Amino acid sequence: MRDPRTERLIRYGGAFADDLVLRARGSWLETASGNRVLDFTAGQICATVGHNHPRVADAIRRSLDEVIHLNSWMLSPPVLELADALLATVPPPLDRAMFLSTGGESVEVAVRMAKLRTGRFEVA
Fold first, then answer.
1. 26 — phi, psi (to 5°)?
2. Which residue spans within 35-81 are E strands per DSSP?
3. In whole angstroms, what is the distance from residue 42 CA to residue 24 CA?
4. Which residue has the higher pLDDT, 46 or 9?
5. CA–CA separation, 85 vs 118, rounded Å?
6. What is the C-alpha separation between 111 and 105, in angstroms, rounded?
7. What is the mean pLDDT of residues 87-99?
8. Which of 83, 84, 112, 119 is nearest to 98 (CA)?
9. Residue 41, pLDDT score
10. Pairwise CA distance, residues 62 & 37, whole Å
11. Is the pLDDT confidence value at 43 over 70?
12. pLDDT tier at 36, thresholds 50, 70, 90
């Protein structure tokens, strides 16, 4: 059931799947043709918690009613609670947290922090 709209999209690693995915729950996908497919390709969050995990979905719904996104200079109780929870898992002197959006940002900040701490400027 290929959707003609796929002709307007670019896929850098081969063709798109032939069937549209309408729903996903846990490790399973349901396609437009009614097939139920075990998802061995889920990336990022779905690979670890599954599609539409009830606790994740509930947390998102709660966030939609409260605060879903803020600029990094604004704080909310969930941000402070997450920092407390994360810092409770690491040893001293690790006593501060910094939340970033991407892995690239994380690497960039780690390099900058290492340079500040060591006073050096080269990285191997």
1. 65, -125
2. 36-38
3. 10
4. 9
5. 28
6. 10
7. 92
8. 83
9. 77
10. 30
11. no
12. very high
Strand-pairing partners, residue 46, are none
Distance CA 71, CA 43 (A): 26
Instruction: Read off the tokens for 72.
Output: 């990094």
Domain ranges of the chain: 1-65, 70-124
Residue 41: what residue type? Answer: T
Instruction: Give pTM, 2 decimals.
Output: 0.54
Token couple for 40? 């061995």
For residue 84, the one-letter residue type is D
User: What count of Cα atoms within 13 Å lies in the side-chain half-sphere of residue 109?
Assistant: 10
Residue 107 pLDDT grade (very low, low, confident, very high; cuts 50, 70, 90): very high
Q: Which two tokens stand for residue 88?
A: 């409770």
